[in-house]
Amino acid sequence: METGGSSTTAVRKLGLTPKSIIFQKFGKDALYTVEEVQDVAQSGCPGLAIPQKGPCLYRCSLQLPDFTVSSGIFKKKKDAEQSAAEKALEMLGIHPSTDDPSAEEACDKLIACVKYFFSNEFLSSLHPLSGHFRAALRRDDDLCGSVPTSVIAACDSKLCNICKLINPKVETNHFLLISYITSAAARLPEFVVTSEGQLSIRRKNSYPLEIIESSLFQQSDTVDSICITGMHIPCSVEKEVQPVTLNISSTEYYLDVIARKLGLADGNKVMISRTIGKASSEMRLYFAVPMSYLMDPSSDFVNVKVHIEGLLNSRASCFSGQDIYGDAILASIGYTWKSKDLFHEDITLQSYYRMLVNLMPSGVYKLSREAILAAELPVAFTTRTNWRGSFPREILGTFCRQHWLSEPVFSTSSIPSKASSETSRLDKKLKVSESVEQGKECVSGGGTATNDLKPVGSESAFKCEVKLFSKSQDLILECSPKEFYKKQSDSIQNASLKVLSWLNQYFKDPNMSSEKLHYSANSLDIRFYPENFFKKFSLYLYMLNIQQSDTQGGNFQRSNSMNTQNTMPENGVCCLSTGGPDSGVYPSNGCLLFISYSVSLVTEGGKMKELLESREEFEFEIGSGAVIPSVEAVVTQMSIGQSACFNTELPIQELILSAADDSARLIPLLLSEVCWLEYSISLLRTTEPPEDRMEQAFFSPPLSKQRVEYAVQHIRQSCATTLVDFGCGSGSLLDSLLDYPTSLEKVVGVDISLKSLSRAAKILHSKLSKNSDVVPYNDVKSAVLYDGSITVFDSRLRGFNIGTCLEVIEHMEEDEACNFGNIVLSYFQPRILIVSTPNYEYNVILQRSSLTSQEDDPDEKIQSQSCKFRNHDHKFEWTREQFNSWASELAARHNYSVEFSGVGGSVDIEPGFASQIAVFRSRLPPEEDNYPKDEDLAHNYKVIWEWDSNNQSRSSL
């Protein structure tokens, strides 16, 4: 291939930040001290009588030898540091140039850098490249002082940045970078000399003897030789990667040792990749200069051309993001900023295969969970609480860095309440359980997703677009999800997961047809650009053993020594054996499971059993696809305390070798023996999912939304002018009421949670303030939020037209719930009271408890099964009979009538409604005053926030 050409139109800034300039001038003498600043938060809700904690803010103090400066206040520490550095530059009278340097100016900078590298002062510096210069002085004969050009290109990032100003293509073409360095050396004939073929550069005149002696003998005492292990990566994908040992004497240049392993005469003919992995890593790929490598260091510096032909090493190229030709050696060795001694680390086969696995989106997640053979990239982002391992956004960022892409670009947008409420009836939320069943065709979750709308009652809704670019800013793909989420962070996480899910499909089957690839992309709201996409990822066809050979999947055998009746062929499970008594407690969709497990490689006849991976405690969410299908299929049939053992076919070879401690010993077995994986699992315990998560998995719209809509409908029909919401929480009902035309003039909320009241105040203020255009059709003239217990009377709430109490009483003790009923109907005396509470009998469906024994009669099981409460904070949950008895007796005692209904389920189908509702109506005439006169001054609640149409928000503190 041939690269080159003028690139003056693509010149980019050198990118020296104020902090970088300060470091160049003062080095370690510049001391930054960052402190957290306490600031009074602006809650966005005037009159809120609850202290608000704002986001963390930072201020930085920069101490220089002659003065100290302080920055302003910023949300990010790095911004505060840059601000302090910028102020210091102003005091020093330094004004960084904001103009982009031309290509010619960049060439001058490059020539100056090359000249500096061969200066006396650079030889004794702590720069990583200076270590190579000192080692080169120990080389024999004509090689003494000769530094390979590839070393200069690989070990100085500043030099690379300068060359990118000349031609951005050097980002992916290190041969072009070497050519620019060689051309710069050619402009210094009186100072440096290049070798024939321009493969190395040396200083024309020898260093002064005292400089050489001081540089070579100031290193700390080291052993006579070191022995490190690297990996030999053959160019042919048919050949296995093998460990290689490097024995390096303290008197020789390690690059010459690597050259001999590659069959080369000396290190000048070795090419070096950029570092792989962490920025501080010294892991690099070493390979021979292609025999056909030709360079024309023309007089026109900007238009340098190179021509390379050779056999591309696809595996090595994928690791480095650069073209690697011929066989390569992967080694972690080199010089660092920290010490003048040679740094080195061993690379094992296991670490090599872990690097391979880390190139896959699911691999990043598996490694973050330290469960390569059990974990899987989830199909849905449900909640931050239940997600385990690296979050989708973090995984996507890691994926982009591993593949030498630009950082992903996220663009979020929101819709106002008015727009969303007008469209809320057009579409329904896609349930998380449906997303899982459709196999990643549509990913939603977070408990707040809707299709092209936001839920009624939410202040705002967000969706996020993600774009991936190459380093040269070619657009590779863009994902534009239709779903909206209540939280901006949820929209980002879900959009990231969609991109990861699609990329994961491709990496698992890079040979999939174009039609299938486009179909899967469309189903995830992804548009990709084939030319740019395949240009970047086509090499990964050769990276993994995706297609199973006959020595792997085809040779899976069942053992006659185990019970094979309970097999699950659709999940690859065979020889399933379950032990332990049935405790009757089974996992339900959305709950967190805690298991212990071990995975072993077993050969036919049990001749060998090698433990690959084990965890004493591993947790995951049922129904989110966070483990491989075979594990989830088995554990969902187990009860707490039971154990299971089963066999599965082998996954791709790289997963096994990345999990095994002794990968080298397993490779011959995998190639010659009939093998399978044996899983042993114990179900330790389970944590039931939060009530809202459980409801989302079974109801669309969610049960909480159905309850609110039920109450809103009755409030509108009642023509009430005053309303009190007992246990208002974050104000979901009050918020929803403002989205509809009602006759309400005054709304009141009562709760004991200051955090919830604070949220409710912010939501109501945003809708009720005069400058708000999102509530065009309500006549509310006043709104008040109180801090207080609903079991205590407050005369200010007496005689309201309607009262609501949705899913509150179950959070009290039963006697408190009975007390509340008496107080509200005898003292508060609303004309109408709506009370909802969970139907305990419906829990068998929500918790799938009827699956505890498939041999029992389902109808009997529903009646006899003991279920858990839906929420850990519930003190009780009533059956339909218990609720009807409580409400009927209460109504008769206080001269009210009562009607029963509910939402979720049906009254005609067992076990009735999921949420049961009682509507109490006073039998007294509206004009009759039956209020207790001695309670007129009972003010037991504290006003947290108050609003009226004349004075707007105010606090009564």
What is this entry, summarized?
This protein is α+β, with helices and mostly antiparallel strands and about 950 residues long. Helix content is about 30%, strand content about 20%.
List the defining traits of the structure above:
957 residues; six-stranded antiparallel sheet; disordered N terminus
Word description of this protein:
There is one protein chain. A hairpin with a 4-residue loop joins strand 3 and strand 4. The protein has 957 residues and is an alpha+beta fold. Strands 32-33-31-30-27-28-29-34-35 form a nine-stranded mixed sheet. Strands 8, 9, 10, 11, 14 and 15 form a six-stranded antiparallel sheet that branches. The longest helix is centred in the middle third of the chain and has 21 residues, at 488-508. It contains 30 helices and 35 strands.
- What percent of the residues sit in helical stretches (DSSP H or I)? 25-40%
- Radius of gyration, whole Å: 35 Å
Q: Which structural class do you get from the secondary structure elements?
A: alpha+beta
β-strand amount: 15-25%
- Uncertain runs with pLDDT below 50, 5 residues or more? 1-14, 417-458, 546-565, 849-865
EC number: 2.1.1.386
Catalytic activity: small RNA 3'-end nucleotide + S-adenosyl-L-methionine = small RNA 3'-end 2'-O-methylnucleotide + S-adenosyl-L-homocysteine + H(+)
Enzyme class: transferase
Organism: Acer negundo (Box elder)
